[in-house]
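User: Hi! I'm working on a homework problem where we have to compare a predicted structure to a textbook description. Could you give me the structure for the chain below?
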Amino acid sequence: MPLALLSNDDGIGSFYLRVLAEALSEHFEVLVAAPKCEQSWIGRAMSRRRPVEVAECTVAGCRAFSIDGTPCDCVNIAMQHLLAGRRPDIVVSGINIGYNAGIPFILSSGTLGAAIEGAVWKCRALAASQKVPQKFFQILHKENKSVPSEVEGDIRAAAAHAARYAAMLMETPVEPYVVHNLNYPERVTATTPTEETLPSAMEPQGLFTMENGVCHFDFHSGEPIPNPHARTDQACMADGTISHGLLDFSRIGRL
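Assistant: Happy to help. Predicted structure tokens:
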């Protein structure tokens, strides 16, 4: 079977990670390398100035490593030290708790950071994220080892879709520096349509409150800027369809 390297930014104990590992195991040999604890909003950061501990474990019956570092650390360490010289056929990151749709989210996401690191290593790369009902977000964010029964079926449907999409990518050539970005709506079934999208531009926003000279992160989703010429990932999320965006980092820069 082809080999999938699986990571995330919500941590090795995430229910979303476990369900995706189970779904991928139907199509791949799976090795998991994920952060020891939650590492959201960290992008492609690496732990340059501190040691990073690695501990072997299992996730959904798959060989796994809990890594006390960033998502990007996890993929880089796996590539160099944990795969015994074998290059994975695909690097999959997710499923993220909350969507990664819109340019600011894509540039900030640890989930995307892990997938981008896979693309830098010239592997197929796939990131998967899912919109979460607001009433469940804090529950899932604080204790993500289990999920409310109301959302479990949607998560499993998203994982099954992501695994099938990853298997489909095995039929395509490797494109270095390219990441496939899947964003799932709250409700997902086997028949939920998938649309090709572009990342949505978004209005700039402040993300911190200040009091007595101290700032605290204070998330606001922000307003997407409508694109009259193309379907955007944010519009897909609003309409309840699956967004597939192709992020080609080999095209960074202009002459």
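For your comparison, note the following. Residues 3-251 form a domain with the Stationary-phase Survival Protein Sure Homolog; Chain: A, fold (CATH 3.40.1210.10). The CA atoms of residues 36 and 68 lie 5 Å apart. Good luck with the assignment!
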